[in-house]
Structures are given as structure tokens and as C-alpha cells.
Amino acid sequence: MRNLVVLCFMISTGLMAQGVNTCRAELKNDTLIVENQLIERKYFWNGGNLITCSLTDKTSGKVWKTTTKKADLDFPGQSEVGEKAQFSVKIVPENAVAPAHLEAEITYTLDRLEIKRVLRLYPNCAVIACDLYYRGSTIAFWLQPGINLADMVNLEQLISNNTVTNAPVIEKLELPGKHWQLSTVEFSDITDRFNNLVHKEESISYRPNLYRGNLLFAHDKVSDEGIFILKEAPTSNVQLAYPGGDFLTEFGTFRVIGAGLNPTDLHPTEWRRGYGYVTGVYSGDELNRYKALRLYQRNLRTHKLGRDEMVLMNTWGDRGQDTRVREQFALAELEAGAKLGITHFQLDDGWQSGRSSNSALKGGSLNNIWDNKNYWEPHPEKFPNGLTPVLKRAKELEIEVCLWFNPSKDNSNQYWEKDADALIGLYQKYGIRTFKIDGVNLPDKLAEVNFRKFLDKVSLNTNHNVVFNLDVTAARRGGYHYFNEYGNIFLENRYTDWTNYYPYTTLRNLWMLSKYVPAQNLQIEFLNKWRNVDKYPTNDPFAPKNYSFDYLFAITMFAQPLAWFEGTGLPEEAFATGKLIKTYLQHNTKIHAGQIFPIGNEPNGKQWTGFQSIGNVKEGYILVFREDNGAVKSSVKTWFSAGQRVTFTAVAGSGKSFEGQVLYGGYVEFELPLKNSFALYKYVVK
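Above: the chain sequence. Below: its structure as C-alpha cells.
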């Protein structure tokens, strides 16, 4: 085969300093090599329809060689050899939200189906990510959900059936060995309905089995080496063109199935993005797999002080809806917020001229929004002077004003450009750059494509300065592993009015997600515990009244705190928590700069639990909670190594500074004198 020429590129001094020059993608004869300092993957070119030859963990030196002759990407009914292949490489410079990285682009055709795969590499990150795009047409595939294994009556059928499913395969690794320990993780969003957001399944890889979830960890028990695959897609229960599962495994063969679109979703000339994947390597203990995953996730969006760090107050949590929203109310809220110490104040639904279906008043709608060209202008009666007086006072108080926004969803988001222009206009006129994006529903591929176009247009036309708070409380949305480059995640609505706010369940949701999703990407709520006390049973030990306001705020500190209440509705005693918030703001950027993972036991209202932010091998932060239990002291499982001596300096809460010895299993003994109390420590490993 004639050598294809890799496009040349210049590497600036600035990019060299970031190490992006250590990332490489090179096509020689029939072999494509993609690598950085930590990972290498070699492919047989196969006309662009790549076949993995080997995968190397450069840290440990482990090399997995494959013997397969079938392509990694497989669409049933399509040709297996690519045609009209093109290959190019470029360095994407650092911008306001993303670090510099390398992209290798491969385009080819399988019959009439055109495929574009973009491989992404980041310096010092042991993963290779892949974005997939499609256009053209096909008469084949894709969606039959696969056979029931119970109907395969004998071993010969299992062995002879290579794919076991008629769904498209977007990634495949065939690795040697038969002693693979699997961990698959399925997530739930739609948090208005669900309060158990993480579902983990442990198994031994054997004959063909189908698993649901966005994450697969596979650990070779013989070599103590492992791989992980992240399916970059919405949660399993809302994915488009879903084939009934996400991972198909058989001994050391691991497939990712489900492309996120059907043949009818293809466009003859426009690339349509499907679901992508990230494949990474690690060796050794469990922490290494999570750290490798987390390093990739943090590369998707660069956190910046002032833009991405926030203690945001949104008044919707007190259920006033749009009845109070107006200029004088907003000004009073700013004063209360400043007294408490918030950094951002968000006007929710009701600031705009149009009346939404969430309004407390009759006649609201979110359909045909653009029949009213002034829908997203400030309400002329509520804000007769526009937003200028509110913004002026906010600036004096050093608080950033944010807004709620509900994109129009008519005909699969066909008016996405008008929606984008509305936000760009608000940014240009008022300087508003943080928007809660609510009411989204992506029931089909075109709606998803147009929604991404909306986000992209706003981002590009504001130099990526806009932050989207992406609501995942209802409908088909992006979940935890899709659209991550655009901002943070508004996780859940909880209200004392409906007695569905329990502090330990909020803590539990953050604790369970934080192993797999960066905690600093999640907005986590704390509420006015003095409201609706009478609606909770008097003997309910987990009612909000049984916790200090400091404790409720502390639950949110390793995430992005969301003050989900009206500041003007707080009693005077609540503002004492301003001291804790002030202390937190002196440390939050360092806390969030680390890799945050859960420690202790799963919260259930009666445990010792918490979080650890690993800044480097020597320093970081620990947040410990003693829930409602009788133990003044407890050994808490951490991510330290046995035998280490660690100095813990008390920063906030009721803990005292101490030096401790790490016991076998990573346990450290902590002491908190009171039930339902917490301690924030800065630690140094000696």
C-alpha cells in the first residue's frame, strides 16, 4: 500500500511547553501508530476501517497483542474494508475551555456510508478518545437488539456467532487471557424521578454477555493490568437507537455497541455526530483506574476561577416560581446573598417577557416561543429599567448575575440559531455569561444535533466565556458523559415543600457519582432548613431541621454549591454560615484542582463518610462527615497508602488538627465530638 502523507503542522513554543508535542499519530505503510507518553495503540490500516494490532501501557510496559482480522468498528451488513480513505493530523491549540491536544482524523467509506473518526490525545493522559461522525446512506443495520442468550441452546452456537448482535459496534478490543474481572457502571439521570444514580455490577468475563452502562473497567487478574472504556453518550435508559446494552464481552473481547443514530438519521452531505468512546489503560490498584479516567475528564473543560467556580444562589428552591421575580426582589436578594457570601445570583424563570409553562400564572407555554420575538427580553413590568440596575448593584457587591433559559424545542430544536442569538445578545448587552439550560428534550437525532449547534454557536461567539448549567432532572438530556465541554451539571431539584429534601440523600448522590464523575462538575444544593419544618414527621431523624446550616453547606463544598432558596427568606441565624462560606472560598480552587474521590462508607444517615481531594502525592484536602451515629472516633477508609504518616490541619468544622498513621487498607482514625458534624482538613503526607 502506498504511504499516505500525514499533514504537516507547526508546534509553537507555548504548545511545546504543555507537552502536546509528545502526542503522535503516524501512518506508515499499513500501520497507524497513535501514542503519547503513557499509551500506544497500533492499528492495521484496512482502508481506514481500523483493526487494532496492539495496545501498550507505557507506564508498566505491558503490551497486549491481538490476533483479530475484523475491524474495530463494525456495522452489520456493511463492507469490512474501507475505501477512499483520507488521513490528517493537527494540533488543536489551547483555548478558553480546552487544553492543547492532538487530533488525528480518518475519513473513509463503507459502501455508501461515510465515516469520520477523530482520535484525540492529551499529554500525560493514558487514554485515546474517539469521536464518530456519519453521513451518506445505508440499506443495512442497525437496531435489532440482539438475540436472547437463553435461546442459544448449545456451546457451538455461542462460539460460531461472532457478533451476537445486529447492533453497530463502535469500539472493539480482543485481548488475550481468560481471567478478566469486570466492573460495569450504569448511571441514571432524570433525577426528578430517580434518587439512586449509580448502579455497579461486578462479574467475571465469560461467554458472551451484555451489560448496560457508560463505563466498563476490565482488570486482568494474571498481570494486574487493566483497561477501561467510557462510552461518551447519555445514560443508557435515554440513549437514541439503543440496542439493549452498551458493552458486549466475551473473555478478553470487549465491544461497545450502539452508535446513537439510525439509518434514517443520516444526512447525505452533513456529518452527524454519533456516540463516541474513550479507551484507557492503567496498572495496579483501583485508585489508578479512577485517576486515569479523571485526568481525561478534567481535560474536557478547563476550570477557571470566577467563571467556573461558583457559590450560586437560585431562588426557585423556595417554590415561589415566577411570582416574586422583579427588580426590587432581585435587588433585595443580592443584599441577602452578599451577606451570606455567594458569588453568583441566578434569576430563574420569570425574568423574561414570555410566560413559560412553569409559571404560577395561567397561560404560559414553551411551545412556539419565537411567535413572540421579545420572549427573551427582560419583562417590561417586572424590570422596567431592564436588567441594568440589578447588574449595577451586583457589580458593587462583587456578585455575578446569571439567568435561566429554556431553548425552544419546536420541530427538533429547529430554531436553535434564534436561541443562540438570544443568549449571545444577553452576553453582549449585559455581560451575562452563566445560563441555566432547562426544559431540554432530545427525543431524536436531529434535536440532539441542533442542540449541540446551539451550544457551539453561543460558545464560539462569546470566546467560550459562557458557562452552561445543564439541567439533568427530566427528559432525554446529556447525562453525565455527554456535552461535558460546555459547563457544569445541575443535578437535582429537591424541595422541603414536597419533603423530598433529605441532606444524607444529597450527600449520597454526590458521594456515589464522585468516583466516576468529577465532583467539581456538579451543582449540589443546600436548602433553607427552617422552611416547612411542620411537613416532616416530628420524629424523623433525617429531617433537615436536625442538621446545622453549616453541615448542609459542607455537603456541597467539594462540588459547586447551589444555594437553592430565597436569601430574603432566611432567618438571621442562617447568615452565620457566611463565615464558613468565606473560609471555603479561600480553599475552593485548590480543592477543585485536585482529583476528588469518595472516602469512608456510603452515606445512609448513620455512617462516617466523606471525600478526598488528591492534589499531588504529598498534599490535598479531606472532608469527613460523622452522620447520626454514636461513635466519637472511627477509622475511615481513604486513598492513602498503609504506613504513611499524614498531618491533618483543621480548616473548618468541628475537627482538630492532628498527625495520623495510615493503617492497613488505607484507614485513618478521625474524631468528631458531635453527631451530624463535619471537618475539613488540609493534609500533608510526610
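The longest strand covers residues 83-92.
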